[in-house]
């Protein structure tokens, strides 16, 4: 019966089912869904050429239980591999992803996903790349006579990868066929090497095989001119009507997975016209070559889109800035210039020249810095106007230099003279591209950021100082005014406004505060300084908005007006008085790691976790209900038998009161309280027990033991609480041990936990010290 009850218990997280046919849909470029897939493999890719800019990369395998595909993890997800949220067995919901063709090779890139738990790898998924027509023997895969001469040099070393003749013939003569074969050449040669256009940033497998090394020269065969159709389609596409964010794959629609499945399941050769819209170039059977596992892994299918819009008419492919990455070789972004530097001269060992940069943001809130040197600087500097929208393409992506660049992209675009920048007219679409894009940091997170960082902050103005005139070093004068700003991380920071910010906006804020209003300010690009703790100051590129129409501002307004105002505890940065009134938040494992409670006096700490288990005995005890010294005694009673004529009510004897007492039941729960680090048995008394059980102890006492009582115990499990723990050493029978008991217990306030966690996460992202963060949230 116990087992049954356990199985039925609610709340245990179970990862949801995998999305049927998700792998095929991904491959067909469908991005209009959020598939649940299982990670079956994680592989670290190493840059083939080292260097300071080399970035860690991971390739994972994503399975729908039937087929899997390789996928690259965007750099912002690398940490999730490191902390184990993405590992073999993880069930993930892909929330942002792309499927691009890079050098004719399909690359799935996961930009964002939710981890939904983990379980044993489901089924025996096969690589979608390797899925070929069943039973086609390797020698039958020889290219047919009519397959086109240019294909041969690539095919010879890899005959077993060639598709069966019946798939090539329909296309071998026409424009599509030529294109397809060219694509296939690239597929045959591309293999595991993901090469950036320009060649300076490509990644090999951690352990490159001989086959790969042999393939590389083939791929780069200089004697192999690409056929015209490929060039025309891939590189000489004239810009057409913008079709934002439609990368061409979308048009394939939701039917695609099923069509492809059909082909894989046998109707492969029977559809020579490619009516379904896709033609898969089959490879060798998955298990055909015992000795050459590597090549089998890289069988490349090939899809040729034959939808209503042919490739020749493909629209310009506007991609979100957030999706830009070195694997994306053709892209256009449509973005508004938000900031522009002057032309600067530089000089170093490599030479000298001019440079300017500007920042842009797009309709999805992606932002990126664009740099132009020398000739490109001269060409594009006159073109760019802050506030205008441009179509920008053909730049190269480099890792962002985060010390100078506060934008939310991991990359910067370097323009060349061949890059294109075309102004867009303001229309319905471009008008929705913001003119300013914030990347707010919680005030609390600023404390551990480096001085000199450029940050965005949104907060409520608490106080405004009067204006002061300051003499600069060069003798000129400027105005200065300080504000104190607080946000819902409960941090307060001083913002020094200089020049126009002190006179104009500063006066507006002073007037508002004088009327008892506390406006919300959003500050873009303030510089973090240090003066008696961390401070902020405006610089020339700073933008300061008062009561802006932003969701964050609305959130803060609400927070401040409700609870975050003067009542709540504010922590001024840099004054070393973090969370004095709250107990230190620790992970459960720290209780043992840090030897809490062993210092001769109890330690009090705060933990957030869940009730994992409750011992069914003891649950409560009969407590003395007599009043003694103005409060209820509550000592444990020794129960007496029911006396005749006493209405059947049991009584107990209180040793302390030396009197009989009617028992009042009090909880004494032994529960296992668990967080992400570990679980621990702790004791939970009285009122806290009542919160856990959701009923008074006396009520539970009346529930018959066994299944009925167990029902209530099960019901109480897996609820999450923030608890204040008393950790103290107790001695029983000359043996001392550390006992934890709950002195306060509250259900988790998720909104507050989330905002504190966000502040902590931001600290980590900004390079803060984890150990300093921990105690604070
Ligand atoms: Zn008593």
3D structure, described in words:
Strands 8, 9, 10, 11, 12, 13, 14 and 15 form an eight-stranded mixed sheet that branches. The chain has five domains: 22-127, Beta Barrel (OB fold (Dihydrolipoamide Acetyltransferase, E2P)); 138-240 and 252-308, no CATH class; 331-432, Beta Barrel (OB fold (Dihydrolipoamide Acetyltransferase, E2P)), CATH 2.40.50.140; 443-572, OB fold (Dihydrolipoamide Acetyltransferase, E2P), CATH 2.40.50.140; 584-641 and 649-763, OB fold (Dihydrolipoamide Acetyltransferase, E2P). With 777 residues, the chain is an alpha+beta fold. The longest helix has 16 residues, at 175-190. The chain is globular, with a radius of gyration of 33 Å. It is 21% helix and 31% strand. Zinc ion binds next to loops. Its main location: nucleus. It holds the Pfam family Rep_fac-A_C. Heterotrimer of RPA1, RPA2 and RPA3 (canonical replication protein A complex). Residues 604-757 form the Replication factor A C-terminal domain. Residues 18-117 form the Replication factor-A protein 1 N-terminal domain.
Using only C-alpha atoms, the radius of gyration works out to 33 Å
CATH fold-level topology of the largest domain: OB fold (Dihydrolipoamide Acetyltransferase, E2P)
Quaternary structure annotation: single chain
Low-pLDDT residue spans: 1-12, 132-314, 567-581, 770-777
The name of the CATH superfamily of the largest domain reads Nucleic acid-binding proteins
Number of domains: 5
Largest sheet: 8 strands, mixed
Strand proportion, as a percent range, falls in 25-35%
- Main structural class: alpha+beta
β-strand number: 34
CATH class of the largest domain: Mainly Beta
Whole-Å distance between the termini? 41 Å
Family: Belongs to the replication factor A protein 1 family.
GO molecular function: DNA binding; zinc ion binding
Protein name: Replication protein A subunit
InterPro entries: Euk_RPA1_DBD_C (IPR047192), NA-bd_OB-fold (IPR012340), Rep_factor-A_C (IPR013955), Rep_factor-A_N (IPR007199), REPA_OB_2 (IPR031657), Rfa1 (IPR004591)
